[in-house]
Amino acid sequence: MRIGIIAHLRHPIAEPFAGGLEMHTHLLARALRERGHAVTVFASSHSESRLGLEAICTETALAAVGTTEATNVAFFKEHHAYLSLMNGLRHRDFDVIHNNSLHYLPVTLADSLPMPMVTTLHTPPFCWLESGVRLCSARNHAFVAVSQSVAALWEHVAKADEIILNGIDLNDFAFRRHADETGYLVWYGRIVPEKGLHFAIDAARRIGLPLRIAGPILDQDYFRTRIAPQLGLDAVHVGHLAHSDLAGLVGGARAFLCTPMWDEPYGLVVAEALACGVPVAAFARGAIPEILDPSCGVLAMPDDVASLAAAGRAALTLDRRDCRKRAEHICDARRMVDGYEALYRRRIAMGRANALPASPAVLAEAAVGAPLDNSIHA
């Protein structure tokens, strides 16, 4: 298939990833190319060229400029990049377009394209994207939610056609039978208020184990006022690590503390920790209860340090082999890519069926690639 993937433009689709959305786009594009598909990724400059990059915008994150006017510049850069892209795609020969962005324009203009489009809903509704989804009138368009939780949050706006859980490359997060002898807990992710790092620092001290922290500092005020004063020998920020280094850090931990202060749409960090064999103690929010079960994780009351500390102590007793088994069962990227491949084929066949008189051959093609495992599809 000739597949065009529209990426989020705020950060490059390259390591070290700014967040889960960038990692998801990179993994999907790479896996599809490895399966023999012709993939083009429409992303910002400095994204990885080996993905089939067609850069449509410089990075719209203007970290060095903190003014309101700069925010407007970033908005217009992004707006015009997507508008130009959608106009141009009308004259391209892709079989299917996968909209993996969080922008309103691609989904709003889906009906202008001659080929089908798939839009993945990665977040709860927010005003700009919700307005675009409400205006989407394309006949051959499918919405995919990355979890049951996300599907439920979008239900009042648009019903998800399918639920395809996100996945990770299990080879990138190798199983570690034993934790590092030094004995530590880990927290990693974007360092922003909604990720709740301050809860993890407090809980780790109650548990009595040091905490190692990894991730980009994307909110300087939050880091300066809430995090930096709490750092010390028992709470160390090791920086924003490359994928291989991050896997080593996570795999050596005795447990992972996951502290979202919002309804986490999926939780790639949870899947990664489980793949390494690391038990998880997490606030019970969003899709995290869909990933964890009692064999691999312990849920805590949201925003409750005492509950998180208790969950962390309980997680220390779980079998690391069971954590890996759980990851293999529901978090394998191969299952995710299988789901998207099948959906692409059905949408392509649907487009052909709408363009031609129905025939047994067309109807048979529409069934090609239908998912066999209903546990990850709506």
Helix-strand topology string: EHEEHEHEHEHEEHEHEHEHEHEHHHH
Q: Rg, please?
A: 21 Å
Discrete helix count: 14
Strand arrangement within the widest β-sheet reads: 3-2-1-4-5-6-7
* Approximate helicity band: 25-40%
Q: Into which percentage range does the β-strand content fall?
A: 5-15%
Question: What profile does the largest beta sheet have?
Answer: 7 strands, parallel
Report the uncertain regions: 370-378
How would you characterize the overall build of this protein?
This protein has 378 residues and is of the alpha/beta class. 40% of the residues lie in helices and 15% in strands. Strand 9, helix 7 and strand 10 (235-237) form a beta-alpha-beta unit. Helix 6 (197-207) packs across helix 11 and helix 9 (268-275) crosses helix 12.
SSE diagram, text form:
Elements: E1 2-6, H1 20-34, E2 38-44, E3 53-57, H2 68-89, E4 96-99, H3 104-108, E5 117-121, H4 127-135, E6 141-145, H5 148-154, E7 162-163, E8 185-188, H6 197-207, E9 211-214, H7 220-227, E10 235-237, H8 243-251, E11 255-258, H9 268-275, E12 280-283, H10 288-291, E13 297-300, H11 305-315, H12 320-330, H13 333-355, H14 360-366
Parallel strand pairs: 1-2, 1-4, 2-3, 4-5, 5-6, 6-7, 8-9, 8-11, 9-10, 11-12, 12-13
